[in-house]
Every structure is written in C-alpha cells, then in structure tokens.
Design a protein that fits this description.
Radius of gyration: 17 Å
Largest sheet: 5 strands, mixed, barrel
Number of strands: 9
CATH topology: OB fold (Dihydrolipoamide Acetyltransferase, E2P)
Oligomer: single chain
Structural class: alpha+beta
Number of helices: 6
Amino acid sequence: MSDAGAHYLSYEREPAKRVFAAELREVTKMFKDVGDETSPMYVLLPTGERCNRVLLVGTITQKDKVGDQNILYRARVSDPTGLFFVTAGSYQPEAMHQLAKIDPENPVFVAVVGKPNVYTTSEGTVFTSVRAESILVVSQETRGLWVQDAARSTLDRIDASVAENPGSDVLLARETYRFGPDHWRRMVSDALSRMMSP
C-alpha cells in the first residue's frame, strides 16, 4: 500500500468500517447497547453489522457554510455508488478547518473518518450523514485502494449475514431493511465496474 494509503488508514480508534454511500444512505436504525451507559451510539448497517465510525473516500461535489458564530460546514461527497453527506462544526475543529480549505470548484478526492448519524425530519423523512472527525485530501490511487477495501468489507459482511446461526445484528437488519444480500452484491459489482471503466 502506498504512503498515502497507509496515511488514511492511520486514523482508526474503534475500527472505522468501510461503507459505500449507497449502503450508508439506507441506514435508519440507531441504538446503544441496552444497560450500558458508556456504550457508544451505533448505526445498524443493512448488511447486518453495527458501526459507530466509518471511513469513506470520494469527491467533494458541494460545500456550504452555515452560521457566523457557530460555524457548520456541510458537504456532499460522491463515491462510485452515489452521494453521502458530511458535516463538520466547532465540536470537530480539525475536520472543520480541513473542510474549510477545500474548494469544491476544483474537485479533489477526500478521505473522511467520522461518526454516522441518523435523523428524522418533522415530515418523517430519514437522513443519514457523517459527522467528520478528520478529512484528508488523498490521491486517485488512494481512492482506488479504498474502493477495493470497501468492496471486500461489504462482501465480508454479506457473507457473514447469510451464514448459519446469524447473530442478533443480522436478524435485526433483516427485519429493518428492505434490501437483501443480492442487492448489496450488485452494488459492489457496479462500484468495481465503474472503477474499471475509463
């Protein structure tokens, strides 16, 4: 792996899951471990695994600055499966300063490590975004390595979800989400195909 690739992997505390935008956008379930006050907040991925940190890589396509005192940046980032949404504010000063320096008029690849968050609007629409802890500009090579990592990780989650005697997270995902393993395998295949096309 290149130095750039090693660099973007060095930001892990609790392991950050490699998740494609198309799967992250389907997330609707957030929870804590029952009876454990110190438990982090998890989201349940449709492929059947809990997750409280993610590592995403894509191209920033839009960035907005909200507020003057308590500044918040919102950005759209595109990977081979679609868009994911990133926020960084005063509680994430490192990520906020990194995002402030990026000009979406000159598209660059970024690696984002952060915590996924699910919120529901008053109309009942569910949105998933990532509260960034770190945002780094990375090379096209690193983006390619991440796509391969995310594909492998997603397929591993799918394989675990169809194994005999699945765990409670897999069973909950089956109850919660509309798409099954075949859908996510097609997503991985499409993402890898897009990477191979000129």
